[in-house]
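Researcher: Please translate sequence to structure tokens.
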Amino acid sequence: MLKKYLIVFFISMIPLIELRGAIPVALSPAEMEFFGTFHGMGLPVLQAYIVCIIGNMLPVPVIFFFARKVLEWGADKPVIGKFFSWCLEKGHKGGAKLQEKAGRGLFIALLLFVGIPVPGTGAWTGTLAASILDMKFKESVTAVMLGVVLAGIIMGVVSSGVFSALFAIA
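Model: Translation complete:
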């Protein structure tokens, strides 16, 4: 059982997949196969949410304090430069969108940016954008945390409805 929780925990830490991919894997029945490699975990809802949220939030302080500096440092390096530049550009675009839409409501905009499960708008991108926008640490972590919780709820509802429908058909 611990192995299942660890798998879900580590899936929720992966950039671009995060909690949005971990929740469906955690909640889906063991008969469901993902990517031909591993099966759903069939974990209890509350425990799955807690593990996924912790896994998704664990990298946030590191991203906030160090990612921008590391990305700026590596942007002009030969092998990693293109990827680092892409990450910085993603953070800048996310930050610009947030600031454009939010004005003074940056906290709510960041919460919704992270919370609405659209590809590329998770905790990693939201935290990087908050760092680039020079938001305060406590404010940005709180907004990201609430966004992660919102994304988890949305993914749980969507996953349970989709998987229930698929198993009803089969």
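Researcher: Any highlights?
Model: The chain has a mean pLDDT of 85.
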